[in-house]
Amino acid sequence: MTVYMSSGAFRVRTVRGVMAEAKRLGITHVELSSGLAHEPDLDAAVAEGMTAGLTFLVHNYFPAPADPKVLNLTASAPEDLAWSIDHCRRAIDLSVTIGGDFYSLHSGYAAAIKASMLGRPADQAAAFKNTSIDREKAYQLMIESVRAVADYAAPKGKSLYLENNVISPVYLEKVPVNPLLMTSADEIVRFMTDVDRPNVGFLIDFGHTKVSGTALGFAPLRFMEQVAPYVRALHISDNDGREDQNLPFAKDAWFYPLLKDFRRLPMVIEAYELDDATMRSQMELLHQAIG
Fold first, then answer.
1. For the whole model, what pTM was predicted?
2. Are 210 and 238 in contact (CB under 8 A)?
3. Angle at the Cα of 3 (from 213 to 286), degrees rounded to 5?
4. Could you tell me which residues come within 8 angstroms of residue 216 by beta carbon, excluding any fewer than 6 positions away?
5. Are 18 and 10 in contact (CB under 8 A)?
6. d(Cα 81, Cα 72) in Å, to the nearest integer?
7. What ranges in the chain are assigned the alpha helix state H?
8. All domains of the chain, ordered by start, with CATH?
9. Residue numbers of the chain with a pLDDT score lower than 50
10. Beta strand 200-205 with 231-236: parallel, antiparallel or unpaired?
């Protein structure tokens, strides 16, 4: 098992700031993720981190562009889809540079979204209330997009992992059709059969699973049983079951007994803005769970 700390766990928002904090805390493995500021000198910054002994993963909206965009492999606008695929290719190239085995990103969604709506499910739901949502069309587009990115990654020896999306009760109280793909186990299983690429798998976010289970009425443990053959990495945080809050987890978390079953996979602590003591205790707790 390799334990990474998400860049979101730190209380700084620059690449060099995260690296400095990681070094101060004795953390050697960091997932570079959404929320970090655009870094014009990224190659040099990452090289400094590697020289200092840090090991990185690249996730989702990293590296951040200078101008905010929406990363969506099912974007209906051709220019938005082209940007999203190009971003994935840049992230894979960065994974080659840092030696990361894979690049992971969120699954697509079947409705147009603005950058200002990201992380704001209530705003998204309000915007989508009267929008026509064609899930099957988006699903087929996601297959095409993921194949294109996976085929780019394969010759470079890299894998592409998709993260299960989170659908909250807030959404479904306002929008009759779920616009977010890969929130249910059935769709993930179907997708893995249809995409037909050996270097594609899933990064399962336990927090997303808990909230989606509340919204869609499924048991998170049953979800994990169904998707287990396709799980290649994990995001670890907790919440109240209604919102994806990225809170620290405890021994009574629903997924705690499962951690030992996935002990050989990369695990990323994705609780946000932690103080030093909590960051250390989360890592200790995770190692205790593995045994």
1. 0.95
2. yes
3. 65
4. 167, 172, 178, 183, 184
5. yes
6. 7
7. 15-25, 42-51, 78-98, 121-128, 135-153, 169-174, 185-195, 206-216, 220-227, 276-290
8. 2-290 (3.20.20.150)
9. none
10. parallel
